[in-house]
Amino acid sequence: MKKTLLTLATIISMMTANGQQADEFNKAILTLNDNSTRTYNTAEIAAINISENGKVTVGSDVFEGNVRSISFKKKAAQTDTQPGDIINGDLQITEAKGWLETAYAKWNLLEGAKSYAVYVKGGQYSSFTKIDQQLVRNYGTYGRADVVGLKAGTYELKVIPVNSNNQEEEAKGSTVTNLTVKNYDRAGFAHKGLSGIGGYNDDGTLKSNAKVLYVTKNNFNTVSLEMITDAKKGTKQTFTELGKIFGAKQKGTDDTPIVVRIIGEIKYANTDSEQRQSDEDGLQLKGNKAETEMNVTLEGIGDDACFNGFGMTFYNGTGVEMRNLAILNFTDDGIQLKGTQHAWIHHNDFFYGNAGSAADQKKGDGSLDVKDDSRYCTFSYNHFWDSGKTSLCGMKSESGPNYLCYHHNWFDHSDSRHPRVRTMSVHIWNNYYDGVAKLGACAVKGANLFVEANYFRNSKNPMMISEQGTDGRNGFADDHEGGMIKAFGNILTGKSLTTFIPHTQNATEFDAYVAQKRDEQVPSSYKCVVGNHCYDNFDTDASLMYTYTPDEASRVPDIVTGWYGAGRMNHGDLHWTFSENDDTKDAINAELKTKVTNYQTTLVGIFGDESSQPAVDPTPGDDPTPGDDPTPSVEGT
């Protein structure tokens, strides 16, 4: 065999000639004799050297005669949605798109207009239907309306200016058509055995008896809702303040579905201490036991809804959902689950928390922690921005296995715990590990992890079992016992390759058992070194698993970073792009930290609601006294 040098130009030429399936970047794929693969971003390598003796060298990686084949794939364009077709009158719609169970439009403010009325048609709306006015907001130089609770389909929106006499001037209005709306991905343990988590049906529409609360920074402390306090006697009571409304749920007598729609930014200073209930736990929603029916959805409207300065804790209860919100500058954990069942946490942005007292809490404590026997939970399509301790899954008293799953999350240069699992059985699939600095998925205390079809880009220690393999005998000092990891269909690139030991390389000191088939069972002869635990093969038991269709690992980065991907709609209003230099750093990114600390909304208020207009803070951290909004509407459909 002659020595061969494949240069970058040659690689690109071969990809074009071979007509390989499009992908998220130009890549070279080496298939080894044991059927495992090694994938490289061609932008990160200068050449592939093939020597006469069969040795293949790619950058610093050397393969001694065990490369069976080399193939190439060509980069794909970023996936997005098609904008709607705009038909403008005097009012100029500038942007309109459909998203997940949502559609929105933005328009230039029209001179002489006092407010705007917005109508929707399509899906469950056979004719143009006016949306709630709280969804029609003023951003100073433009207006925006988001229509939520839509089933999948094609929609039209109509925006009509309202004059000083409160008359709609339809002749000046504009319309947008062909807005494509898709459903949220409801795969996961949260939906196993339970239909319609929170206040929505599985088709995306509001439950028939659902009540809707609109909450802004101005009415967080004054929002009211009538709730049942004694089901047998039919007794009802009106509760004022969001914390007290959530507190009334703890009695377990009112299981009416509630959808809490957050408008804009809500700061720590906008909430009183009774509402927060605990600075450490933030806003709390409690059930009096794990089986208490909560039926609560907490959702952000648009791309700028956030909790700034506090987090969210779900205690006990079943059937809760949190979506399309950002958590930043929080104390202790961003989101905690304690003894919660059938919880669905998805499409949220997690930014830096406030520094804690411990050395490993400079970025805050946990971003998303799951404790106290929480079970049947799904964490999907969340975006973790340089999180430190990303997700702890299980404490030390869980009875296990509990069954949780993480899928389509974007671990964007976060450091560790992706997740770190104790005792539980957890399915981790289709996540994008993007420049993770320390640790990926970790198994301790007898945990069982099925790590499937994830993409690890230049992420150190992608999979690790306590006290063996890459971890050696010096890791996880407080969790000496290991767990078991089954891996299948994952792609590892860059540093992800250099710190991973499959069982085929070392049958004892391995980081994961690498299966050749998805339904392959791990033999009981494979055990963790410390603790002697076997893999429980939960993933091959149809009675335990849910229905799902994983994406090919090669498509994960494009899906997760795309329009329908991780984080809030349009990836939120606080944007940041990390460089490859950030891949190995676990220190706080000073520029991003400043941006997060100084964040403030550009929302001015809700059109037609005069008391909500001064919603922009004069200076960061200097809140005006909250105004007295009229009691927001409670909608039942």
What does this 3D model show about the protein?
It is a single chain. With 637 residues, the protein is mainly beta. 6% of the residues lie in helices and 34% in strands. The strands form 9 sheets. An 11-stranded parallel sheet has the order 17-20-23-26-29-32-35-38-41-44-46, with no helix packed on it. A hairpin with a 4-residue loop joins strand 18 and strand 19 (235-240). The protein is globular.
Provide a brief overview of the structure:
By secondary structure, this protein is mainly beta. It contains 6 helices and 47 strands.
Helix content: under 10%
* Structural class label: mainly beta
User: What's the shape?
Assistant: globular
- Strands in their spatial order, largest beta sheet: 17-20-23-26-29-32-35-38-41-44-46
Overall number of strands: 47
Biggest sheet, open or closed, and with what strands and sense?
11 strands, parallel
How far is it from the N-terminal to the C-terminal residue, by CA? 73 Å
In terms of per-residue confidence, which ranges show pLDDT below 50 for 5 or more consecutive residues? 1-24, 613-637
Number of helices: 6
Strand content: 25-35%
- Spatial extent as radius of gyration: 26 Å
Q: What is the average of the pLDDT values? A: 88
Task: List the SSEs and their pairings.
Blueprint: E1 4-7, H1 8-18, E2 27-32, E3 37-41, E4 47-50, E5 55-58, E6 61-64, E7 67-73, E8 85-87, E9 93-98, E10 102-108, E11 115-122, E12 125-130, E13 136-138, E14 142-148, E15 153-162, E16 174-181, E17 211-215, E18 224-230, E19 235-240, H2 242-249, E20 258-262, E21 265-267, H3 273-276, E22 283-286, E23 293-300, E24 306-308, E25 312-315, E26 318-323, E27 326-328, E28 335-338, E29 341-346, E30 349-350, E31 368-371, E32 375-380, E33 383-385, E34 392-393, E35 404-407, E36 410-412, E37 420-422, E38 425-429, E39 432-434, E40 441-444, E41 448-452, E42 455-457, E43 463-465, E44 484-488, E45 491-493, H4 495-498, E46 513-514, H5 556-560, H6 590-597, E47 605-606
Parallel strand pairs: 17-20, 20-23, 21-24, 22-25, 23-26, 24-27, 25-28, 26-29, 27-30, 28-31, 29-32, 30-33, 32-35, 33-36, 34-37, 35-38, 36-39, 37-40, 38-41, 39-42, 40-43, 41-44, 42-45, 44-46
Antiparallel strand pairs: 1-4, 2-3, 2-7, 4-5, 5-6, 8-16, 9-10, 10-14, 11-12, 11-15, 13-14, 13-47, 15-16, 18-19
